[in-house]
Amino acid sequence: VAFSFQKPWLWDYRECWKGYPQQPLQPSLFWYYLLELSFYWSLVFTLPFDVKRKDFKEQIVHHAATIFLISFSYCANYIRIGTLVMVIHDASDCFLEPTKIFNYMKWKKTCDSLFMIFAAVFLISRLVIFPYTVLYNTYYYSMEIFQPFFGYYFMNGLLIILQLLHVFWSCLIIHMVYKFILQGTMEKDMRSDTEESDTDEEGEKIREKEQNGITYFSNVTSNNYIQRNGSEPLNNRTHFTNGHVKER
Questions:
Q1: Where is the chain membrane-spanning (predicted)?
Q2: What is the pLDDT of residues 70-82, one digit of tens each?
Q3: What gap in Å lies between CA 9 and CA 218, rounded to an integer?
Q4: pTM listed for this prediction
Q5: Domain boundaries, the chain
Q6: Distance (Å, rounded) from C-alpha 51 to C-alpha 55?
Q7: What is the largest CA-CA distance in the chain?
Q8: Which of the 8 DSSP states describes residue 18?
């Protein structure tokens, strides 16, 4: 709460341009920028090792757009716009990580409850607050004060990319919520969000089924072959000892 009152542009978007470009960089905002930028760079570095989901390409575009936005807003002294964007995104992300943790712990009810909270915060912050406070501010309101220039087009282009990604992920979340309402339990992530351990377990089960199927098929075919030759099945008649057939 104190953070919000000390930064009035978080609740009044017109404060974003007050005194620009002579806006001082507060130490708290510097560290906030540093933490956010390092976090998204860490996501980029770990992308080759992550599980490839359906939205893998969208994740790459999102991380690239976010890093460019953070870097450009810092260099152009759009600090207030940048912090507003980051706070709006972090509002839902702080519910997403605990949801994953409880999902790994198999606490289904807690996971489902947190996911519903995350979905509500995500849809409100990304589809309502973000377009109204950020896009309207940078695309329309800023032109009442300044003339269009390169930074105007560059920053708004990146923000529009983020908004399109918000719509894409919102559709997936709405679909998951719809299934939850119908079935009463949370289905798997629509992005095929299975961890490596789950994937490995499923792969092992598939391989076991294939091996069992091959073994069963070979046993059936061998028994049928023996029966077609007028002999009894091996499992009832003989077993092999040093390459010879021995009667039981």
A1: 30-49, 114-134, 154-181
A2: 999 999 888 899 9
A3: 72
A4: 0.70
A5: 24-183
A6: 11
A7: 100
A8: T
